[in-house]
Amino acid sequence: MLLPCCIVFASLLPIRAIPPAEMSPAAKKYLDAALDVIEKKSIRRDVDWSKMRSSAYAQVADAQTPTDTYKGIRYALSFVNDGHSGFFTAKDMKEMDKGEARSPGMMVLDCYVVKLAPGGPAEAAGLKLGMHVLQVNGQPVSDTPSFYDEYWKAMGQGDGRMTLLAEDRQGKHASYTVIPGKTTVIVPPSGGRLDGGYGYINVQEFEGNSRLMRKYANQIQDLIRTTDASDIKGWIVDLRLNGGGNMYPMIAGLGALFGDGDLGSFISSTGADKWGYKKGSAIEGGHSVVGIRPYKLLHKGLPIAVLIAGPTASSGEAVAISFIGLNKTVLVGGPTQGLTTANEFETLSDGTVINLCEAVEADRTGKKYGVPIRPEIFVRTSWAKYGTDEDPVVLAAKKWIDEQ
User: What is the mean pLDDT of residues 158-164?
Assistant: First the structure.
């Protein structure tokens, strides 16, 4: 094969090696500060910190700016592997502060739509709670992993759009095209009085600023207030789809069910930091994090069934822990995800945040977790029946309340 003459000519010239770029002093200073925080405050103490650092440096050896080091910080967190820490850019933090994220705005479990963000892309496309998803972009799906395989494949291509073939609860099939976009990640609490005289409160995850925290806490408490009646037999608190976020508006909103007092503690290498509830405020370390005007139940001491499942995680688990040890209270459902550890926002110089796992959670009796919470009454959630009168976990909770 003949080569272009210019290439032949070039091959005869002396070759000058291009020296590899080195990390700039500014980038190294920034990366070192991040790695120092991780090493000093991580809940994991069995890590080879020297190897963690060298591995992180290798990921971004030619970094020139702090932004160039982000990959190394994320790698360091994966190396520590506590299962709970994360890294957020300043843009991420602004969106979280507003309770927003780019998302299709839905959750699907066992191919059933169990959660929709209000006004989000999935809801706007016409999807309804309880619909059974049969296909994603023409590919059949049959369980949670197969659905999310196709979901993430679509999210990684173009604008992330996906066409879902779904069946409603009346057996009608239709196609729905969902295009991910910026949407709220806050699903308002829901509930009310169930047939038979049970108060039902469904609390899902929350993330947002102080104004949204108070709003969310008030929404929970307003549900309790409007459901409370002299003939209520007991309360059902559903945390099965609570994937975490900020626990304190959840604690403040549910405070009427807890009553004043310590509810649990964060145990770190520096000691124990208690959380609790007092007169409308969620408390940590003796200080109010979020407070609202308190409501007092018409009748204290009614039985409380707390529903948990695999999706219950992080702050959702902390709320479940807050009920453990409370008189006439039981956990019903399945084991939780196991993120019963506590994170702290560690802010770096450019506004990025390491959401670092720094403590393990303990209940009011002093029992430590760091593992999945297991229910006292085991009942597997049927996501096909979630939100219906045939939900087996709710039925088990009603039965237990009736027996008290």
Answer: 94
Q: How many independent structural domains does the chain possess? A: 2
Q: What pLDDT digit, counting tens, does each position of 241-251 carry?
A: 999 999 999 99
Helix, strand, or coil (residue 364): coil
CA angle 25/31/35 to nearest 5° reads: 140
**Residue 81 neighbours by CB distance under 10 Å:** 10
- Looking at the domain assignment, is residue 298 inside a domain? yes
pTM of the model as a whole: 0.88
Q: Count of CB atoms within 10 A of residue 4's CB? A: 8
Contact indicator for 284, 274 with CB cutoff of 8 Å: yes
- Select from 136, 166, 184 the last residue of a domain: 184
CA distance 197 to 192: 10
287-328 per-position pLDDT tens digit = 999 999 999 999 999 999 999 999 999 999 999 999 999 999
Is residue 39 situated within a structural domain? no
Residue 260 CB: number of other CB atoms within 10 A?
14
**Whether residue 2 has pLDDT greater than 80:** no
Residue 364 burial (CB count, 10 A): 20
211 vs 208: CA distance, rounded Å: 8
